[in-house]
Design a protein that fits this description.
With 405 residues, this protein is of the alpha/beta class. The chain has 21 helices and twelve strands. It has a single domain, classed as Alpha-Beta Barrel (TIM Barrel), CATH 3.20.20. Strands 4-11-10-9-8-7-6-5 form an eight-stranded parallel β-sheet. Strands 1-12 form a two-stranded antiparallel sheet. The termini are far apart. The N terminus is likely disordered.
Amino acid sequence: MKVGEVRALIQVKPPRLDRRVARLEACKTVEDLHRLARRRLPRPVADYVDGGADEELTLANNVAAFRQWQFTPSVLVDVAHVDTATTLLGQRAAVPLGLAPTGYTRMISALGEPAVAGAAGRAGIPYVLSTMASTALEELAGHHGAGSTDRWFQLYIWKDRDLTARLVSRAWAAGYRVLEIAVDTAVSGYRVRDVRNGLTIPPQMTLKGLVDIGLRPGYWTKMLTSPALEFANVAAGSGGDGYTIDNITKQFDPSVNWEDLARIRDLWPGPVVLKGPVGPEDAARARELGIDGVHLSNHGGRQLDRTVAPIDLVAPVRAAAGPDFAVFVDSGVRHGSDIATALALGADAAFIGRPYLWGLVAGGEAGVDKVIGLLAEQFTRTLALLGVTSVAELRERGSTLLRPR
């Protein structure tokens, strides 16, 4: 079916800009943006964003784990000025917040990774481009409006080690500053929602999809009029292979080990971070190997179900790796108070994934701005109410500001 025929079939009307702006302004929390995004996405795509592995126990526990902590504030403190700026791996960040890597972002919104990177650049925070991105790393680096100087690249170590090495060299040549190596994907997790929905990447026009056109015309028209969807970083370096999820997952290598990590460390001139559910012993070993930090993550509950919430790893990893080792955390961050909790426990910054995707769907690039702004405002207010005036003070006094429920 041609694009013109689809347009005629669904009789698409251009969205009223003022209505979209009003709906975005009406969103006062991240969850408001989540609800709006789900209304705009076809169910299989919404479930792809929201779903977790197997019984989704980890998915729920990630959020609940942040809520197991209570604040113990100080009062009668002058908090007329609260400084949220910090330094992450030598680069200034306006807020201790980063945008974590998410795969195939242009399937979720035709604006894709450039819109996310643009919002990060304006906010002065890092954005991590995924190996599984739908925008090639060179394209993003040269994209007008996505020119943040704090670009990070997330790497999978493929079975094809030559392809892996090429990705590393391409990222450095394109100006990416930090390399994050994902170590939680020896095999792909089993996401039941995707299996039940019959989700394919790229999406296929099935009978169910045609029915969904009538319910979500805006989404489908944007997809049909956009360039072909692909795993752009892999396609650009694999001679045309690697366009489908089946081909990609065959590249996940269960034999990856510490020797592979050491080789990548030698290839990358800048900071290297391990991303995954890294425990204290592995964090200490990584430091001995010359790794600069860890990004504690269980892939947002999308890999191993029943695994520990990353926020619960922060304190023991900090104790094992020492004060000058970078510790970042994601999976379950939904509010600025979650960022404060992470830093009080010993993290340098918190990262988000799903929330900025919800913002992207709800309001495009302005929606990502909205998510970052909400979290930054909530974080600033939390510090003021805690009687804390800076990120450094929050980290220094962390143990006195929290207690478990």
